[in-house]
Structures are given as C-alpha cells and as structure tokens.
C-alpha cells in the first residue's frame, strides 16, 4: 500500500511562511556560496584534494599526482577549478607552484568535511 505524501492543511501559517521567505532572502549570498562549494566538492578527486590540504599544509601538482596516482594534467585541471572557486590559493617557489587552502574558507571546509 502506497502512502499518500501530499500535503493537506487546514490552516495556513502565514507567519511561518513569511518568516521562512525572509530567512532565505537574508541567507541568499551564503546559500549561493555554499552551493558553489558543494558543487566543487561533489567530484571525488577534488574532494580527495581538499582532504589532503586539510591534513597537509601545501602540496604541488607532482605531490598530488604521486598520491592520487593520476597524471598531472587532470590534477592541474581540478586544482584550477578549486582555485577559480576560491577554495585554493597558490604560490610559486622557484620552479614549483605550491597550492594550499584559502584561509578565508578553511574553517568552512573543516566544518563541511567533519
């Protein structure tokens, strides 16, 4: 027997509905930012990269390639997406470019991951 999941209410709680609409309007920027983060983290490789950066301060493409056992080109593409999305920053040291978490989102990412 299938349960009927349709809504049938007797009274409309207009205060609740208006309050909820206002709440979402106030949280709109935060919701957009979190949706962007969740979209980036929805890819298994990018999520692994974030896990690594939460554990290790900085890594280069070569390090990530060795750890993830992937070619450097796809790793670089994932890093670019994470950097463009504001989750990572990078810094050149001689011939090597090191990536690390953007300090502005580091605590947010820790909260999401844990």
- Which class in CATH terms? Mainly Alpha
As laid out across the biggest beta sheet, the strand order is 1-3-2
**Strand-pairing-aware structural class:** alpha+beta
Distance between the termini: 39 Å
Low-confidence stretches: none
Instruction: Find the CATH superfamily.
Output: Winged helix-like DNA-binding domain superfamily/Winged helix DNA-binding domain
Total helical segments: 6
Helices and strands, in order, run as: HHHEHHEEH
If you average the pLDDT, what whole number results? 92
The major sheet is characterized as: 3 strands, antiparallel
Count of distinct structural domains? 1
Proportion of beta-strand residues: 5-15%
Helix content: 55-70%
The beta-strand count equals 3
Q: What is the CATH fold-level name?
A: Arc Repressor Mutant, subunit A
Which CATH architecture would you pick?
A: Orthogonal Bundle
Molecular shape: elongated
The whole-angstrom Rg is 20 Å
What does this structure look like?
It is a single chain. With 114 residues, the protein is of the alpha+beta class. It has a single domain, classed as Orthogonal Bundle (Arc Repressor Mutant, subunit A). 62% of the residues lie in helices and 12% in strands. The chain contains six helices and three strands; from the N terminus they run αααβααββα. The chain has helices at 14-26, 28-41, 44-55, 61-68, 72-84, 103-113; strands at 59-60, 88-93, 96-101. The protein has a three-stranded antiparallel beta sheet. It is elongated, with a radius of gyration of 20 Å. 12% of the residues are buried. The model has no long low-confidence stretch (mean pLDDT 92).
């Amino acid at each position: 027997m299938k349960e009927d999941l349709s809504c049938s209410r007797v009274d409309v709680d207009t205060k609740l509905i208006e309050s909820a609409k206002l709440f979402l309007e106030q949280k709109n920027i935060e919701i957009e930012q979190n949706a962007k983060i969740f979209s980036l983290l929805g890819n298994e490789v990018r999520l692994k990269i974030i896990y690594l950066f939460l554990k290790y301060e900085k890594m280069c493409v070569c390090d990530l390639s060795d750890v993830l056992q992937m070619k450097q080109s796809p790793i670089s593409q994932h890093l670019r997406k994470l950097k463009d999305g504001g989750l990572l920053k990078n810094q050149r040291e001689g011939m090597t470019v090191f990536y690390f978490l953007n300090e502005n989102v580091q605590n947010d990412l820790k909260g999401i991951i844990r």
